Structure prediction request, 192 residues.
Amino acid sequence: TEERMRIKNSTGNVGIGTNDPGAQLEIYRNSANFGHQLRIEEDGTGDAVMGFALTGTKAYSLGIDNSDGNKFKISGATNLHTNTFVTIDSSGGKVGIGTNNPTQLIDVYKTTNDAVIKTRTTAAGAYFEAESAFTGYHGIKLSSSGTQKWFLGSYNSANFQIKDGYPSTGSEVFTIEDGTGNVGIGTNNPQA
Prediction:
């Protein structure tokens, strides 16, 4: 018979698929199989969860929250329901940072001042990029309490626009015309 598991006598390390485990538990595989190497499954109403802890200092939980629509969560507590940092909604792959209920592909939420998203590099080039497969539909929306206040970008146009309100219905207050570079304030058809 082939050996499947070994408990190393000198260290107490457990090896599955290896006869020389280098950690307390090592699971080793050398194959083309893409299935799970480690599986945590819950058959009842509880959560499928892993815990990580520094004794008396900090705990994190990682797993599937059965009582919250089977969302995958990372929490800064001994359970998934408290102090949730990241949520992946299983129904649409939406990611929430600071929220259990993401409404967009990425939804960052903070209950205090200054919610900032930052991109940094130690070399050249730190960017935010908005790319659409349809010409003239990309930009940044600025809202307050659920109301669209400003739009910067291009909506149904190749021009750069600043609009007061929604991209589709807001008043175009500033335009840079694509191709000519003409600038318009209060007009979307600048001649100079």
